[in-house]
Design a protein that fits this description.
- The chain is mostly helical.
- The protein is built from 10 helices and no strands.
- Helix 1 packs antiparallel against helix 10 and helix 3 runs antiparallel to helix 5.
- The longest helix has 31 residues.
- The radius of gyration is 20 Å and the shape is globular.
Amino acid sequence: MVFLWADFIAGLVGGGAGVVVGHPLDTIKVRLQVQSLGAVQYKGIFDCIYKMLKRESVFGFYKGMGFPLATIGIQNSVCFGVYGNTLHWLKAWPNDSKPVTNTNIFISGCVAGFVQLSIACPVGLVKIRLQMQTHGRGTPCLEKVMPRYRGPIHCLVDTLKTEGIPGCYRGLSIMIFRDVPAFGLYFLAYDVLCRKLTPEGQSHPSNVALLIAGGLAGSATWFCISPLDVLKSRWQADGVKEQKYHSILHCIRDSYKTGGYRVFFTGLTINCIRGFPVNAVIFAVYSLMLRVLEGKTTQ
């Protein structure tokens, strides 16, 4: 069978574009989800934005972006590459005459979601721990103190020293339950929307349709996985100051005890808002790059 490289390259470019667009909103989302583990408390999205601007300036919104920017392209390259190749193989087996089905798309998305976790889990952990650095080792951030982590590499090395390799994959089990079905839904929703938004007689959806389909697919997926995302953020952020949770079950119980069921929907609004522009850009850039690489630039 033919191995397709175009999906990997297009995913690399699309992933990088998505990080630049979405990281500020992602930082706000993480701060809201794990604020009980930090020194600063927020009343909502706008209060979080105000306090971050006041205490950390606009650069606070880009904390932890360097590592995802350097790695998210690889992560998306793996994700889209595995998706494209799995879909191609499913279509080609046992022969290449049958059309692509929704089941093929969903399964390919699930496989891609699982494989990309090898990169996504440690990258996400480092990103969250850097985003949580509103202060240094328990001291309010208004004071001039050295933060615990000097950067993404130092954060990764520190985690390896203190928690070992398993520490870098803290939250992997949660991410498996979150990402595997989520990516299946993600790719399926995008494909269905693209088909609906493509006029008859046209081989490709318009650029506007790509943006709309990618944005809606992203927002819908984040809406479905928000509780697991909150749990993942809290579990991975634990340990920046001190170890609070003994297990994932303890994290669930303590979160519910302190915030009720609503705590698991913290950041839902910002997740859905962020999901639209980020995934609109990712899918639009990915699809356009794919056409260029495959020599299909005309519609």
